[in-house]
UniProtKB/TrEMBL annotation:
This is Lipoprotein. Residues 111-154 are annotated as: Disordered. Keywords: Signal. It comes from the Bacteria.
Length: 154
């Protein structure tokens, strides 16, 4: 083999293996800042985690397509098999985010978040005014029109 072929093969292998994926970085279920979180912070983090889960699901679908393409192309050029991702990064991170979401749900329940339907506590500066009651109308008088008695048949 010529030196050019060896260098080209190494360059292709390095480039393709760089696409092989990244190591999973799962989020920890309990985090140090949790004790300081109020209901608004819990809600914001839940929404952020939901967006991350959607992004990871999309990435997972793209990674499956990439693995299929690398597997098929690897039949012709076996070096491409080094580009396949078998780490399951998206699955690991999604599971960690789901565990975190469950913990945040328990934390929100413990702190009674959502008891007032998400509305902030209102400060009342004036005493509330009582609405005036409308006078009741007298009940309608029934107008019964009696039907004539049925005629006797002979």
């Amino acid at each position: 083999m010529s030196i050019f072929k060896v260098v080209a093969l190494c360059a292709v292998a390095a480039a393709v293996s760089g696409c092989a994926g990244r190591a999973p970085a799962p989020v920890s279920v309990v985090q140090p800042q949790d004790r300081y979180m109020d209901c608004a912070a819990v809600t914001i983090e839940v929404q952020t985690n939901n967006a991350k889960v959607q992004q990871l699901a999309s990435d997972k679908g793209l990674k499956v397509a990439q693995n299929v393409a690398a597997g098929v192309a690897g039949l012709v050029v076996p070096v491409l098999w080094f580009g396949m991702d078998f780490q399951g990064t998206a699955d690991t991170e999604i599971q960690a985010l789901q565990a975190r979401q469950q913990y945040l749900g328990a934390l929100a329940e413990q702190r009674h978040c959502g008891d007032n339907a998400g509305e902030p506590d209102k400060v009342v500066a004036e005493s509330p005014k009582k609405p005036r009651a409308k006078p009741k109308a007298p009940p309608p008088v029934p107008t019964a029109q009696a039907a004539p008695p049925p005629a006797e048949q002979k």
